[in-house]
Amino acid sequence: MSDGVEVNFNSNEGWSRLPGKTGCVLLTFDDGPGRQTADIVSILNHYDVKGLFFWQGHLLHHKRPFQNLLQSGHEIGTHAHQHVDLTRLKPEHVRYQLFTGKRELERLTGQKISYFRPPYGKINTTVRTVASELELTTVLWNISSYDWDPHMTAETIVERAANAGTNSIVLLHERKVTVQALPRLIESLRANGRHLLSRSDRLPFS
């Protein structure tokens, strides 16, 4: 997805930019929880930046730092139960992936899970329908850092993501190289005049 100017909502997919005229940037983190979660939360807290984390259900464990994450003002959404291409699955298997991922997160956190990001950002009518039935808001992105690419360095991640425009949703992952890039990315975004959602801000999705 590209950094379009007027795109806020694509009814065929999901939110790829922040709605309205927030003028903000939202940092999102996929594929957790994992070993980098605590470091990412610590950096976000230091800069008072809100993060929206999309976690896979099968990776959940009570020893993961979800309590500190939530108490710090960040939020968690489901990245399905497993990291699979949902558009290739039968409807009943799509429902299993979304329902199980949501249920396991709610059991762990004791909170209602309202946000969903499909693995690989792939979505179709079946996935949209099931997400809607489960009262999940689909959140995509318009800026990818490509931090999942093993050839990317902290410097190149910052270069790719620091030019995010207003109302952008930035895709990041819970990786070591992302931890290395994150302080510079936040500082670069602010130097470019971008306001990042703070931990006390509410997510503007409806």
UniProtKB/TrEMBL annotation:
GO biological process: carbohydrate metabolic process
Keywords in alphabetical order: Hydrolase, Metal-binding
Keyword field contains Transferase: no
Ranges where the NodB homology domain occurs: 23-197
CDD domains per UniProt: CE4_NodB_like_6s_7s
One GO cellular component term: membrane
PANTHER family cross-referenced by the UniProt entry: CHITIN DEACETYLASE 1-RELATED, GLYCOSYL TRANSFERASE-RELATED
Protein name: Polysaccharide deacetylase family protein
Organism this protein belongs to: Alkalicoccus luteus
